[in-house]
Amino acid sequence: MSKIPLDMQERSRQKFRARDQKSKSRKSLMVRYREKIRSRHYSPRTETTYSRWVVRFIQFHGMRHPEDMAEREINKYLSFLAIKGKVSASTQNQALAALLFLYRHVLGREVGDLGDLIRARTPERIPVVMTKNEVKIILRYMRGRDKLMALMIYGCGFRLNECLNLRVSDIDFERHEIIVRNGKGAKDRSVMLPGSLKIKLEEHLAEIKRIYLSDLDEGYGEVPLPGALDRKFPGASREWRWQWVFPQANRWRDNETGKQGRHHVDATLLQRAIRRALDKSGLTKRISCHTFRHSFATHLLEGGYDIRTVQVLLGHKDLKTTMIYTHVLNRGPGGVRSPLDEL
Question: Which domain covers residue 320, as residue numbers?
Fold first, then answer.
């Protein structure tokens, strides 16, 4: 990106601020942007990611206000991401989605033809999958809560955030199922509760309940509720059924109000635990939390389950997404006997 003289940057900032002050809502652009995202019930992560793309877009064009820019500037920025930034196709699409949201829902303008936009190439990659023995090896080097979370991701096909966001009421021991609430695409789905996890999970919840009751005795025990449930059902945030299945070890504290509570564990804790287990195992594959989900789908297909069943369990909207796992069905190079083996 070419450097812009400081005086020109300052003039651009002044114009940006002046233009934004003329807005009918009299709110800054980013405040309005975030409000629009929240009003459409996008996830907090999407709000943060989209906002960053808008800020980068504005900075790229020398702090010009988006109202003074259109298709030409969007094209230039997205092409820059593909050529200089060398971003993936999904990252470029994410940036485009953030800018389209800005123009459509905040500025009230439709974005027209972007012209000869240079698109980032979409690589065709096969997901990293562990064998069942490799899953056992990794789990052998994990302990306690981290191991239970890894077992649930592999045993139920969860995404990492779906596992972290589980609440006590989502687990039905009688029906042997778990409800995934507000998964990707804001969709709910049900998955099986592996029989081998039932006792482990019951023991874990018994320990969590002991901590929860201790928090209540000390005047705490509240958790954030989804949507507007905290207004509809006052006091529900202190009920057992709404507690996290995997809460933080320590309570957070608001220094201004003195209020304390627990959120679910941070994703990095499990990611680091898997990394440590991988280092100890001696395996050379690039294994992450999501690799357990890939392995779940692959092993189901290897076990003879039909692909549509796997699609439903994974929560995929499009069957094509699930089709990436069909490479395991003895089709392609893996199912061909090399002539070298016949010498």
Answer: 132-328
